[in-house]
Each structure stands twice: as structure tokens, then as C-alpha cells.
Amino acid sequence: MAIPLPELAAWLDALLRTREVPDYPPAQNGVQLAHQGPVTRVATAVDFSARTAQEAAARGANLLLVHHGMFWGGARPIVGPAYDRLRVLLEHDVAVYASHLPLDVHPELGNNALLAEALGLRPTAGFARFQAIDVGVRGECDLPTATLVERARAFARAHQGDVVATAHAAEQRTRRWGICTGAGASSDSIREAIALGLDTLIVGEGPHHTAVEAADHGLVVIYAGHYATETLGVRAVAQRIEREFGIPWFFIEAPTGL
């Protein structure tokens, strides 16, 4: 099966509400690099990198679907590794489509909703406010926090990562939780979690000071890895593409160690 890139991109933009969801300027959601001909095979990855570009081309994909796209470093000369990445894509006619916050917030295909599902949690509201949207999710449960830590650890290790939990996780029960994947532990999200009365926050990563601030308020933070917590959305979107259009796909596992 095959579909023209503009048609697939328009379908993805509508599905993910690409034009409606606010984001950070470097995100540049949508098609970041075009190609000739229709899309016949999709590669997915968390990050755009030399490794993912090369593997996408080597395995015959002509669309690379990523969460973190080509422009996170801002405008810079196309030399060295930047040139090498682009050269591989152009030589093999591989397009790039990126979706950052639109993919994080999607209620079915989003990283946050899917991580909650993977951990056996049911979201009932939003969390981690950014401009007019809630990037993350939150809800209620009643289980030992240590159990949640072990679930998160099993998930992270499946992607060559691991989990760090702040103090008192072993003694606490989780009753009100929040999730924000990726760099979800910020001063803003910690303050929001405290204001909402959450006792457990599950994120990808965050600065050291967030663990200190959280502990002062009795909030446990489970850092499950930036990379691992954002492997879910791109795969879910690729599965939806295959179901809708019959286009095969594969996931490129390229953990960063974070």
C-alpha cells in the first residue's frame, strides 16, 4: 500500500490537532522534510538523530516519524553530523514528520495516556498545564507506591533504562497521582502537583532541585526516563497508520540513557 505524503500529513495533522496544540518554537510539528513519491514504509523513533536517519534509510522506510524532530538545537550551519543526517535522508528520499506536544496530549495515542495505561492507572483529569493545554494526566488509585515504582522500573528496563524514585517511596501509598512524560519534573509541575494534593508524580526526568522540593512536601517523584516514557506515542501513531492505510512500519530502538 502507498499514500502521497501530503495526504498522509494532512490526516496526521487532523488526528493529532497539530495546528491547534501550542508547543515550544523548536518543535516545528508536522512535515519537517518532504520527499518525492508516496509513503510506502514508515520508521518510527523517539528522536531524530544520525542513528535513526541511517536505520530508517537502511531498512527501506521513506517516512521517519519522530517525537523530537530535526530542529531542537535551533538554527545552525548544516555541517558535520547535521550534514550527514540530512545527506542520508536526501540520498534515500526519506521524509520526516515530527509531533511533540500534540502527541504528548492525545487522549488515545499520547505518551501520557499510554504510560498511565501501561502502569495500570486510569486518568480522570489533566495535569502539567502549558499555555491552554494539559500536557499530562492525573487520577486516583490506592496501591503501595513501591508497587508503582516496580511497574515503572519494568517498563523502563524494556527500553534499556531504569527508574529513580525519591525518598519515602517504600513507605508510602499512592492515592492521587500525576504523569508528565519526558522532561516532566519542572518547578511548575512540582508546584502544580502540590497544589492539587498529589502524593505521587511520574515523569521522565527532571532537575535535582525538583526532588528536593518534592520531598519537602511529601511528594514522591518517580523518574522513569525521558526516552522510555516517550516510546509509546510514535508507535501508537504508526499502528494507526497501518490500520487505516495498510502501510507497514517498524520502531527504531535508540535509547539515550536518560
Task: Describe the protein in words.
This protein has 258 residues and is of the alpha/beta class. The strands form three sheets. A six-stranded mixed beta sheet has the order 7-8-10-11-12-9, sandwiched between helices. Strand 10, helix 7 and strand 11 form a beta-alpha-beta unit. Helix 2 runs parallel beside helix 3. The longest helix is centred in the C-terminal third of the chain and has 14 residues. It is elongated.
User: Largest beta sheet, briefly?
Assistant: 6 strands, mixed
Please provide the ordered H/E string of secondary-structure elements: EHEEEHEHEHHEEHEEHEHEHHE
The residue fraction in helices comes out at 25-40%
Give the strand content: 15-25%
- How far apart are the termini? 36 Å
Give the total of beta strands: 13
Strand order of the largest sheet: 7-8-10-11-12-9
Weakly predicted, low-confidence segments:
none
Content-based structural category: alpha/beta
Give the CA-based shape.
elongated
Mean pLDDT: 95
* Rg (C-alpha, Å): 19 Å
Number of helices: 10
Layout of secondary structure:
Elements: E1 3-4, H1 5-16, E2 30-33, E3 38-39, E4 42-47, H2 50-58, E5 63-68, H3 80-91, E6 95-98, H4 101-105, H5 111-118, E7 125-130, E8 133-144, H6 145-157, E9 164-165, E10 173-180, H7 187-195, E11 200-203, H8 208-216, E12 220-223, H9 226-229, H10 232-245, E13 249-251
Parallel strand pairs: 4-5, 4-13, 5-6, 10-11, 11-12
Antiparallel strand pairs: 1-3, 2-6, 7-8, 8-10, 9-12
Helix pairs in contact: 2-3
